[in-house]
Amino acid sequence: MPPAVPARHRAIHTTHSTAWPLWIISRRVIAASLTTTWPASWSSAKTRRSTTTAMTSAATDYTVDELMAVCISRLVQDSECVAQGIATPMVMAGFFLAKMTHAPNLLFASAIGMALTTHWSPLAISAVERGLQDHILIAPSFAQLVCEILPTLQFKEFLRPAQIDAQGNTNNVAIGNYHHPRVRLPGSGGIPDVTSFSANTYLYNPRHGRASFVEKLDFISGVGVGPEEERRRLGIVSPGPRALLTDLGVFDFEGGRMRLLSYHPGTTIERIQARTGFPIAIASDVHETPPPSEEEVRLLREVIDPLGVRKLETLGGADRWALLREIAQKELGTDAGHG
After folding, report:
1. Coil, strand or helix: which one is 191?
2. Neighbours of 83 (CB within 10 A)
3. How far apart are alpha carbons 337 and 339 in whole angstroms?
4. Element holding 260 (H helix, E strand)
5. What dihedral angle (degrees, nearest 10) is formed by the CA atoms of 114, 115, 116, 118?
């Protein structure tokens, strides 16, 4: 039999007859649960060394997916609620890294399994829900999660749209004519709602190029920054995306346009501009992005994501398929991926 789940981690299943509003219950349960717990398999001195002290030794051997996960981690603060979308393992790696370093009381809200939890487990592809479902604090319905809990907790979320324009508007619908598109995209999901009402949305794109950063979008499925009068008329209360992370740099939209804050080691401002389909603004204090620390890289590789699931977001086509097959074989111990 599986081990008993501690009382403070047992799921609360709510119905419409709940005496207390769900957001009140969620706050009380969460407040009682925000203490750092480490699964026994991760509590060794080797695994946790240096995670409570400043990690000042800069790594020299790291990959772009690791740098992006670290950048995501740096934008997360302790005791925040972070929302996890679907098929965004790089974001998940960044959240878990923050949890293991400077944000031990991080709360995870996931669209995968409708889970609200402080627990996590290493990234996987065959059991994505495992780390979120085993120790649920609250198990709400989708409507309860998005209409009651997340607005109350003022969650932070990182979105990965297919296309982005200079104002941070995004397209995840289609490229070209809607009925006969050149590319049919996955769809907007909850992006229109989140970008209209949330004050803490962030964008990321692990393959910065002119196909993704375009002057004009065929469809707008996510709201960026824009004239205040127009936003009021449309009922948009969100200030727009707080920041944008790519494999080339870190940006914001201060002044109403995509602005470069830092360029990653090994790239240049000129290269970033050449791979963007519109002129970008440059911050007066633009600088090189600080590299990950050796400890951050170690945690990503050995503890958080030893299978390398985060790397899937940087690949496409045959390379992505090959990595998927490799991960499945390691995870399941079979010749998964054939056929």
Report:
1. helix
2. 25
3. 6
4. strand 259-263
5. -160
Report d(CA 55, CA 52) in Å as an integer.
9
Three-state DSSP at 320 gives: helix
Residues 6+ apart with CB under 8 A from 338: none
At residue 113, the pLDDT reads: 66
SS3 (DSSP) at 254: helix
| Site of tokens 């990690």 | 55
Inter-helix orientation angle 89-100/64-74, to 10°: 60
What pLDDT score was predicted for residue 162?
Answer: 95
- Amino acid at site 314: T
Closest to 76 measured CA to CA, from 116, 35, 104: 104
Burial 188-221 (b: 16+ CB within 10 A, else e): bebbeebbbbbebbbbbbbebeeebbbeebbbbb
The whole-number pLDDT of residue 13 equals 39
Longest dimension (CA), the chain: 60
Q: Tokens 């346009």 appear where?
A: 257
Whose CA is closest to 245, among 11, 46, 75?
75
Structural domains in the chain, sorted by start: 9-15+56-332 (3.40.1080.10)
pLDDT computed for residue 6 by the predictor: 40
Q: Tens digits of per-residue pLDDT, 248-306?
A: 999 999 999 999 999 999 999 999 999 999 999 999 999 999 999 999 999 999 999 99
Per-residue pLDDT, 49: 40
Are the beta carbons of 26 and 138 closer than 8 angstroms?
Answer: yes
What pairing do the DSSP bridges indicate for beta strands 249-252 and 244-246? antiparallel
CA 127/CA 121 separation, integer angstroms:
10
Q: Could you read off the pLDDT of 17-62 as tens digits, one per residue?
A: 344 455 454 555 445 444 444 333 333 334 334 343 346 699 999 9
Contacts of 213 (CB under 8 A, 6+ apart): 163, 164, 165, 205, 258, 275, 276, 277, 278
